[in-house]
Amino acid sequence: MEKETFHQLLTNYTALSQEEALAILTLQRNFPYSQVLHGLAARAAQDNNLTDKEHQLHLSAIYSTDRAVLKTIMTALQQPGLLK
What is the rounded CA–CA span in Å between residue 30 and residue 27? Predict the structure, then answer.
């Protein structure tokens, strides 16, 4: 994944498509210790109603160093894509 594409995913984490969610899940498998990817994967799974959304949330909670930040990520209002 290109650096610019990853930056767009981070910037628009409240408006991820299902295709972007699957790309994040692939990155998560390739980099299993990344707290950022676990948080993004949990949010993307929730927003796209993926079957493993509960698992992703639990996994993200395990890797999270600050649960308040995780809560903020998970409860942020959905925004239309800012950069595309």
Answer: 5
